UniProtKB/TrEMBL annotation:
Signal found in the keyword field: yes
Protein name listed in UniProt: Amidase
Gene3D superfamilies, sorted: Amidase signature (AS) domain
Domain of life of the source: Bacteria
InterPro entries: Amidase, Amidase_CS, Amidase_dom, AS_sf, TAT_signal, TAT_signal_bac_arc
Organism, scientific name: Pseudomonas saudimassiliensis
Pfam families named among the record's database cross-references: Amidase
Domain Amidase stretches: 61-487
GO molecular function: catalytic activity
Residues annotated as signal peptide: 1-31
Family: Belongs to the amidase family.
Xref: PANTHER family: GLUTAMYL-TRNA(GLN) AMIDOTRANSFERASE SUBUNIT A, MITOCHONDRIAL, TRANSAMIDASE
Keywords noted in UniProt: Signal
Length: 506
């Protein structure tokens, strides 16, 4: 295990000792006839909304259950870092939009979103008081779906780590084992969903940040195709076209219905012909036999732990039993060049975001404002030229062309989500120098980042748990715009090997 770092010292006693008995205090008793927590946890978001429409439970009651569960479990997992309880209570008592998730509690990730008159810190001390004036498109669509937003979840600074650890709010702990990472950068969202605070939560993904925490916490996580779902209000938030927004959920149908609610009405070519129906409706359609490429190794020379290969083998067997054709194949992609392009675009986005904040504050950023590794990334980003940026964009396009040729022969690609099970906290540490942090972070994201580079949709599916009880996801990626195929397969896998009732000890 790593020693004490500057970040861990700064956190001081704010971090709980992991591995001790939780001793959760009981939830407060609800009024007679109202929903209890066990019933709440047995429902996904669509089922909770159905109960609201039928008058069996009110939005206010659901919100109080989510708040009570937050206050009960959050001291142990540190998932929710900003609370908007009173605003949510007011909204829950008013007439909510009659959307598919009317009355369902919801959390935003504290990164890359704007909700009116609230702070989004991006996990950074430099943004700790960064208040915004208006909702962005994602938040507006979430509200129109009837969701009741009551807080924000933890994220590493600027989402630049596959583990949710940081100085500002501390580390998020995995509900399956408090000594381990919940993944990143949507680790707070995943931990909150896994721990039963809510059934579905906002997440974003610039290199694997939906799929990695979904894998780490035993949940379903779909990264949509590039530009299908609105993201942010500025170029820095999209990480040079690498990032996408959606949710992490316990059920596949919640993810599908959220995609219906969040996606642009006319996303453009490549997203399917008119008349295909909603993403949720697609789950009811029979799935044809798929030809699936099986990729056992990443496109960079890197070990893959036996537990991840065991998860892959189990998924291969299950897909074969369901009638799909599986073929071992490897795309011809220059992954080193692709990663270099990805890194260039990421640090350029970081430099743009920090520059905007410097203008707002009227001062320059200092080493006391950012995590050490982000200070190095910022210096890199500030040295880039316009030529470097254009070359990086061409690198993305070249990788996309290479994968398009490969996908002409396959419907989907199946691989591990990560090369290892969720690592202990402190292994992926933003106090490390960049030349040490990069290889460790890549151990988590080397499979996932490919599809941020190409813009293809990809999902992590929770089909396997290690002998030690840690979730280990597998990833399926589709052709650009093939969310419907991915969701259909996910629904088929969910029915064949259910995971919804598999709950962590927290």
């Amino acid at each position: 295990m790593p020693g004490i770092t500057r970040r861990h010292f700064l956190q001081g006693t704010a971090c709980l000792a992991a591995g001790t008995a939780l001793g959760l205090r009981p939830l407060p008793a609800m009024a007679a006839g109202s929903m209890g927590f066990n019933e709440y946890r047995r429902c996904d978001g669509l089922e909770l909304a159905r109960l609201v429409r039928q008058g069996e439970v009110s939005p206010a009651e659901l919100l109080e259950l989510a708040i009570a569960r937050t206050e009960q479990v959050n001291p142990h997992i540190n998932a929710v870092v900003i609370r908007h309880y009173e605003t949510a209570r007011r909204l829950a008592g008013e007439a909510l939009p009659d959307g598919p998730f009317r009355g369902v509690p919801f959390l935003l990730k504290d990164l890359g979103v704007s909700m009116a008159d609230t702070i989004t810190t991006h996990g950074s001390r430099f943004f700790r008081e960064a208040r915004v004036a208006a909702d962005d498109a994602y938040v507006r669509r979430a509200r129109q779906a009837g969701l009741v937003i009551f807080g924000k979840t933890n994220s590493p600074e600027f989402g630049n780590s596959p583990s949710t650890e940081g100085t500002l709010f501390g580390d998020t702990r995995n509900p399956w084992n408090l000594e381990h990472s919940a993944g990143g950068s949507s680790g707070g969202a995943a931990a909150a969903v896994a721990a039963g605070i809510l059934p579905v939560a906002h997440a974003s993904d610039g290199g694997g940040s939906i799929r990695l925490p979904a894998s780490s916490c035993g949940l379903f996580g779909l990264k949509p195709s590039r530009d299908l779902v609105p993201i942010g209000n500025g170029p820095g938030e999209a990480r040079g076209l690498l990032s996408a927004q959606h949710v992490i959920s316990r059920s596949v149908r919640d993810s599908a219905a959220m995609l219906d609610a969040l996606a642009w009405e006319t996303p453009g070519p490549g997203f399917g012909a008119p008349g295909q129906g909603s993403y949720l409706d697609q789950l009811q359609q029979a799935l044809r036999r798929l030809r699936i490429a099986v990729m056992r190794k990443p496109l960079l020379e890197m070990p893959v732990d036996a537990v991840c290969l065991a998860a892959l083998d189990q998924a291969v067997q299950l897909c074969s039993e369901l009638g799909h054709e599986l073929v071992e194949a490897v795309p011809e992609v220059d992954m080193r060049a692709a990663m270099q392009a990805s890194g260039t675009l990421s640090v350029a986005g970081l430099a743009e975001r920090v520059a905007q904040r410097e203008t707002q504050l009227g001062r320059k950023v200092t080493a006391d404002d950012l995590e050490p590794v982000n200070m190095e990334m910022l210096a890199w980003g500030r040295q880039l030229s316009a030529v470097d940026y254009l070359r990086a964009q061409e690198g993305l396009r070249q990788t996309s062309r290479d994968m398009t040729r490969f996908m002409e022969h396959f419907d989907l690609v199946l691989s591990p989500t990560m090369t290892w099970a969720p690592p202990p906290l402190g292994v992926v540490d933003m106090d490390l120098p960049l030349d040490q942090f990069g290889p460790v972070a890549t151990r988590s994201s080397v499979f996932t980042v490919l599809y941020n580079i190409t813009g293809q949709p990809a999902m992590s599916v929770p089909l396997y748990w290690s002998p030690e009880g840690l979730p280990v996801g597998v990833m399926f990626a589709g052709r650009f715009g093939a969310e419907r195929t991915l969701l259909q397969l996910a629904g088929q896998l969910e029915q064949a090997q259910p995971w919804f009732d598999r709950l962590p000890p927290v």
